[in-house]
Amino acid sequence: MPKLESEAPRLVVFFGLVASGKSHLAKRWARARHCPYYNTDIVRKQLFGLDPQSRQHAGMSQGIYTAEHSRQTYREIVRRVRIDLDERSREVVVLDGSYREEAERARLVTEFGGRAEIFFIYCSCSEDETRKRLARRALDRRAVSDGRWEVYLYQKSGFAVPHEIEGARLLVLDTENDTDVLLRAVDAFVETPALGEDRPIRTPDGSRKNE
User: Fold this and answer.
1) Is residue 90 part of a domain?
2) Of the four listed, 133, 181, 188, 204, which is most buried by Cβ atoms within 10 Å?
3) Angle CA(17)–CA(22)–CA(24) in degrees, nearest 5?
4) Residue 62 is part of which domain span?
5) How many CB atoms lie within 10 A of CB 139?
6) Taking CA 132 as the corner, what is the angle to CA 129 and CA 133, rounded to the nearest 5 degrees?
7) Number of neighbours of residue 135 by Cβ within 10 angstroms
8) Greatest CA separation for the chain
9) Which of 88-97, 109-118, 154-163 bottoms out in mean pLDDT, i.e. has the lowest?
10) What percent of the chain is predicted at pLDDT more than 90?
11) Do 211 and 178 meet the contact criterion of CB atoms below 8 Å apart?
């Protein structure tokens, strides 16, 4: 993957509500580039000595999902990214999490905006598709997310979809589109230098396929 004109490393953040398809895309995209990939569900469980595939069914803001534990998780991810960029000279680092709070998105810009190009990729799908994905996930023993319908509703209630992110670039994806089409859209977005004032980019309308 070619460098940007600025020769800066890239921090690529896939974010959105539970079952939005962000992890599916983020893992595929990171794997193809052999770059570090940090999923907030995995990092959270690692911090508390849990198997990433263990299911945690505590209620909202309980167990490992309290506000303080969430802050610890996001701080740990910042620490890992700092090591990758500053000590390991990584060219690309991929993050995967809800990043539903503006403060957490802004923190990434504040921490890394001076030494990396930052790309946020907002992933979303319809509620009908969300229900289907959550039902499939409940049967998947390898799933690392503890997402359930009540988690989706909780996240949605406090999630304001950004129209732009100051200091970063924003791509909006409908993840009901074909995965290969979406991955090519991410490639084009990350590989193209910014021209003038950034605006959110949306994928073209087209036929949809399940994740």
Assistant:
1) yes
2) 133
3) 135
4) 10-202
5) 7
6) 85
7) 11
8) 47
9) 154-163
10) 59
11) no
Q: Tell me the pTM.
A: 0.85
At 194, the amino acid letter reads A
Residue 3 lies in a domain: no
Give the mean pLDDT of 77-106.
95
Q: How far apart are CA 203 and CA 174, in angstroms?
A: 7
Q: What is the 3-state secondary structure (H, E, C) of the chain?
A: CCCCCCCCCEEEEEECCCCCCHHHHHHHHHHHHCCCEEEHHHHHHHHCCCCCCCCCCCCCCCHHHCHHHHHHHHHHHHHHHHHHHHCCCCCEEEEEECCCCHHHHHHHHHHHCCCCEEEEEEEECCHHHHHHHHHHHHCCCCCCCCCCHHHHHHHHHCCCCCCCCCCCEEEEEECCECHHHHHHHHHHHHHCCCCCCCCCEECCCCCECCC
- Residue 194 is part of a domain; what is its CATH number? 3.40.50.300
Domain membership of residue 75 (yes or no) is yes
Alpha carbon separation from 32 to 28, 37, 142 (Å, rounded)? 6, 11, 21
Rounded CA separation 181/130 (Å): 20
State what percent of residues in the chain have pLDDT above 70.
79
Contact 95, 78 (CB under 8 A): no
Overall number of domains in the chain: 1
Q: Is residue 146 within 8 Å of 52, Cβ to Cβ?
A: no
* Separation of alpha carbons 83 and 77, rounded Å: 10
Contact 41, 53 (CB under 8 A): no
Report if residue 5 sits inside a domain: no
